[in-house]
Amino acid sequence: MLLFLSIAVILLASVEAADDLSKLKSLTFSPNSFIQFSPDWSSLTHAISVCAWIKDVGFSTYRTFFYYHASGTEMTILAEGSHIGIFGSYMHKQSSITVPKGTWHHVCATWSYNSRTHRYYVNGVLLGSQTTASGRTFRTGGSLLVGKWYGTSSNHDFAGEMAYLNVYRKELSSSEVASMANAGMCLNIAAVDQNEDYKVIKWEDILKKTRTGSIAANYVGKCMDARIEEAERKQNSTAEELRVALAEKEELSTRLNSTQIELTELLSSLNRTWDWDVFLTDQFLNETFTTEHSLLLRSSWDGIADKLVGIRITEEFLTLSAHIDKDEDRPWTMLYSENYFNEIFTKDMAARLTSIWDGISEKLVGITLTKEIIELLNHVTDRTNCGK
After folding, report:
1. What is the CA radius of gyration of the chain?
2. d(CA 258, CA 264)
């Protein structure tokens, strides 16, 4: 069963890994190529963050990679840093961007109704901000273009490479943006996005949208390398966990066999019967037997042994005692054995039972008292023909 579960975990991990691989793709846009769809913008009206990794090759003058239009321009992000806009108002930060052409870098634009501030970050560094009009929120029902401005001019084509474009329904803080950028573009593999629950438009969904023009999807090489390394670590970890589990199973089996032999020898040498059904109570059944359990039973027995001396152990006495006592931990059932039943209980009997318990309790520590184990112990005891 353990081996089967381990294999199942490995197979499940493989399925999840295949799903993760889809996130590792980037899109390379040729001129006049774009993705256009109408997203549900209702959760983005009062707060938004748009973040992506881009590789700008400098194809056109106004290289638009994100454009949302709803009865007018609502949000625009250009790769070269000009016209970083919201609600038709723009920041021009092209002179602040020092990233060489053809180099992957992280960009992020944030805004919220409460802050009324539109911020633009490159590689986790704030390059600029602007205040928006009071009371202004995003319009819904618009169209989103990825890789192009709204219109036909080729002068607004992105024509570069893009990956991990995600839109969040919150204004990410400067520390969150910096953390995302510093984690690297393989964030989906290296760590879990701490704002995953806030994603409204996800990169893995954009990859499935209809594409216009020539757009190639390719795996990001360094992220694939990171994914392979992670898969190897998980595989090695799973193999080690399986090895440890099998070793523990083998050790438990060895201990159980050893305990069975020791108990058989002990009970045989003491020539007395022991009733294991006391362990069928909720306090012990399916629990790992501990030193505390041993002391509990010993204390319980010591408390009643002296009071039994001189009493004949009859059916009526045991039934009444168990009914009055209401303590399922007390081993009343063992007194039904022929060594004690219908006999007058003596101090010698008490001493023998105590001796038996002290001898076997130590052997039980660390064993889980399942019904199968208890039945096995009863079977071992019966085979010794103790007291007969």
Report:
1. 37
2. 10
Cα–Cα separations (whole angstroms), residue 113 to 155, 188, 209, 212, 362? 32, 29, 30, 34, 69
CB count in 10 Å sphere of residue 388: 9
Phi then psi for residue 248, to 5 deg, are -65, -40
Q: What is the DSSP letter of 133?
A: P
The predicted-structure confidence for 89-123, as pLDDT tens digits, reads as follows: 888 887 777 888 888 999 999 999 999 999 999 99
pLDDT of residue 377: 66
- Locate tokens 């769809």: which residue? 37
200's enclosing H/E stretch is: strand 199-201
164/53 Cα distance (integer angstroms): 6
Beta carbons of 276 and 382 less than 8 angstroms apart? no
Angle at 108 between CA 102 and CA 113, to 5 degrees: 160
Residue 19 tokens, joined: 């799903």
Per-residue tokens: 218: 């390719």
Q: What is the pLDDT of residues 282-301, one digit of tens each?
A: 777 777 778 777 777 767 66
Cα 291 to Cα 75: distance, rounded to the nearest angstrom: 68
User: Of 209, 353, 351, 213, nearest to 275 (Cα)?
Assistant: 353
Query: pTM of the entire structure?
Result: 0.56
The alpha-helical segments, DSSP class H, found in 64-108 are none
Bridge partners of 112, per DSSP, are 47
Strand partners, 53: 106, 163
Identify the three-state secondary structure at position 84: strand
Please state, in angstroms and rounded to a whole number, the distance separating the CA atoms of residues 307 and 301: 10
